[in-house]
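Backbones bend. Our protein:
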Amino acid sequence: MVRMSAEERRESVIRAAITEFARGGYNGTSTEAIAKRVGVSQPYLFRLFPSKQAMFLAAAQRCCQDTTKVFQRASEGVVGEGAVKCMGDAYQALIAEDPEKLLMQMQIYVAVAAAEAAGDREFGESLRASWMEMYDVANLATGADAGETTRFLAYGMLINVLVSMGFEPDHRVWTGFHEATQSPVVEKGVEKGVEKG
């Protein structure tokens, strides 16, 4: 049996943390569940990450980074309306193929809001920075059109909400969307049970 390096273990913890936090949220997820998913002891887990919060932040940042990379790859060599379509299609594919990414995004917003309400602004600082990287990539792809960037991200957030809440593809809430949005990709995301926790 090949032994994993600390960096490989750390990577496996981040992947497990995304899965567990996506399903249970920050407060509803135990480090025991993450350790069990990885196949390590809790003390070993805490050698890789100093706290549960550090694990959540690493998982959340990875989620944002992965989405940013999807936008970067999709918009490479395209700008404006073409880039918006390419990024939208790529994002729909991402959340259909890996619904945990969508659920993790939703958990990020809840965790940051809860921390802010409790007076902890620092918790959200790095996550806001990661989100701004995603915004900047989308903004650049639109040709630095702030209005188009806002519409693109707002449209994406509405898709996030509808898919995560489990609205079926033929539900009337989807009727205001472009035909392309009502594609098999969104249907696949709903069929895979994005709304399951």
